[in-house]
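We emphasize that the prediction below concerns an isolated chain of 190 residues; any contacts that depend on oligomerization or on bound cofactors are therefore not represented. The input was used exactly as deposited, without trimming of termini.
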Amino acid sequence: MPKIKNSTVESGAASTMSPETKVVPVRVIKKYPNRRLYDTTTSTYITLTDVRQLVMSGAVFVVRDAKSSDDLTRSILLQIILEEETGGAPMFTEAVLANIIRFYGNAMQGFMGAYLEKNVESFMDLQVKMSEQSKGMSPETWAQLMKAQSPMMQGMMGTYVEQSKSLFTQMQEQMQKQSEQMLTAFGLKR
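Result of the prediction step, given as a token string:
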């Protein structure tokens, strides 16, 4: 996600300003005590559905408490996920949700968040590549291609899963090295 810096966003991987770094004003949405959301850009009240549309369109925004200016963006995004999950075709199974809950308070909590973030980014990259390859195809042609190339899709998903496992293994090794270094620094291991 782009880095938020005061009321602008730097898009780009580097934290220093470069020629390709764009500074985009952050859209501010205020949440009032009556649970209403006010979009300061359009000067209108909006709904969670409207916020979802902002997410889908890639808009950069922050949700702030109208009185305290606390950042409520994560809370609003979680509400949108909850609505999507209860609205018909959930993405997460009960087992996945239970496993995510188990990581809270666990020593691996920070690593789990980074692991999930990297996996979602990888999956999004895969989706972008697939959509680029399918430009100009009708929905019917795309459906036929997907049926015909089911083994190919399974292969791509298999590759994705292997990359995911590799990433997790790397994170485990990194955590183990850091733990050993910390124990050595405290004189608990030689």
